[in-house]
Design goal:
four-stranded mixed β-sheet, 3 helices, globular, 103 residues, alpha+beta, YaeB-like fold
Length: 103
């Protein structure tokens, strides 16, 4: 079962893609491949990545180019299912952005 990518995370992914295309020094495909691998990992092993130490509501995974995916594992129809909340660069001020998540 594929993870659920929430609106803010979809917006983050679009912004990342646009930024990678604009600056041209990093191929967007490498980032997409890394994100796809992450999604496959949490589909098969949802608790693979650790809780985020500054906000334990989320788990975090660092993927290509210092981007961090923040997600939660929730029970949906008695099955664990990952919901991806944000995809942020490690240099961003992360806590305010995480606290602004909206479903």
């Amino acid at each position: 079962m594929k993870p659920i990518i929430l609106k803010l995370a979809r917006d983050d992914l679009k912004e990342i893609h646009n930024r990678l295309v604009e600056f041209g020094n990093i191929p967007p495909k490498k980032f997409r491949d890394s994100f796809t691998t992450f999604c496959a990992n949490i589909t098969s092993i949802p608790f693979m990545y650790p809780e985020y130490e500054l906000n334990s509501r989320y788990r975090k995974a660092v993927i290509k180019y210092d981007y961090i995916v923040f997600y939660k594992i929730e029970k949906i129809n008695n099955k664990d299912r990952a919901r991806i909340y944000r995809v942020l660069h490690g240099k961003q001020d992360i806590l305010p952005l995480l606290n602004a998540d909206v479903e």
